[in-house]
Each structure stands twice: as structure tokens, then as C-alpha cells.
Design a protein that fits this description.
Blueprint (H helix, E strand, L loop, with lengths): L2 H12 L9 H15 L2 E2 L10 H25 L6 H12 L3 H15 L3 H25 L5 E2 L1
Antiparallel strand pairs: 1-2
């Protein structure tokens, strides 16, 4: 040991350890509990979704508009597809060998044709109910807070 270590050891031997008074831990805990009772602590913050409600509304409106366009206006505009870009795309697609793809599509299409239409309606209704339940659950819990008193 060097000289500083020996001096430090001598100092430490001469120092008497302080011991806390009787009930010290109890008094400290009582003060902590008193402060906690006065202050409100929010454990759970307000729910902030990644995609806002406004963005969801815009996405749903765009999707519904697209479906409406496909259902109502596609039949009328199918005769007016003589643009240069569209004809170029059609020519390039005709050159692609799609025999394997069409066979796969026919097998998938045959699988879906064998399922009764009522099953599709049941699936659609189930997904709609699940979505409504999810939305209502989020709305109910979005403003809930847990407070410690």
C-alpha cells in the first residue's frame, strides 16, 4: 500500500459511524406518502393513434369513391380507352406470357366460386361488427386515466 492509502485507512478507523435515529425509516416513508397523496400522478396518458381520425376518414372516402367509380363509371368509359398510353400498355401486356398466371387465376377463381355467397356476406358482416367494436372500444378508453391518490 502506498502512503495515501495508509493515511486514508487511519482516518477511516478514527471515524465513528452515524446511526439513524429511532423510527427514521418510518418518518421518511410517511413524508413520501404525504407528498404522494397531495400530488396527482397520471400513469396512463391519453391515447394518441398513429393514424388520426381525419386521415382514416379521408382514406375511407377515397376508397368508397374509387369503388363507386369502378361500379358506375367504368362501364361507360371502357369504350373510350383509345388513348395512346393505354394502347401501349395493352400491347405490352399482350406480349407477356400469362398462361401460367391465367391458370393460377382460374384455380383461385374456381375455389372462390365454390363458396356460397352467404359465406361472403357473413364474413363481411363479421368484419363490420369487429371494426365497429374496435372503434367504440378505442373511443371509450381514449380519455380514461388511472390516478394514484
Amino acid at each position: 500500500m502506498n502512503k495515501l492509502d495508509k493515511q486514508f485507512e487511519q482516518l477511516m478507523k478514527g471515524i465513528k459511524l452515524d446511526s439513524p435515529s429511532k423510527g427514521f425509516s418510518l418518518k421518511v416513508m410517511e413524508r413520501i406518502q404525504a407528498e404522494a397523496a397531495v400530488q396527482k400522478h397520471v400513469i396512463v396518458e391519453e391515447y394518441q393513434p398513429v393514424i388520426s381520425r381525419k386521415a382514416w376518414i379521408i382514406l375511407i372516402a377515397a376508397f368508397v369513391s374509387f369503388l363507386a367509380y369502378l361500379l358506375f363509371f367504368e362501364q361507360e368509359s371502357s369504350a373510350n380507352t383509345d388513348s395512346v398510353a393505354w394502347s401501349a400498355i395493352q400491347d405490352s401486356l399482350q406480349k407477356v406470357n400469362t398462361k401460367g398466371l391465367s391458370n393460377a387465376w382460374q384455380s383461385v377463381n374456381g375455389l372462390f366460386e365454390s363458396i356460397p355467397s352467404m359465406a361472403y356476406l357473413i364474413m363481411l358482416a363479421s368484419m363490420a361488427l369487429w371494426s365497429v367494436d374496435l372503434l367504440l372500444t378505442r373511443l371509450r378508453h381514449s380519455h380514461s386515466e388511472i390516478q394514484i391518490r
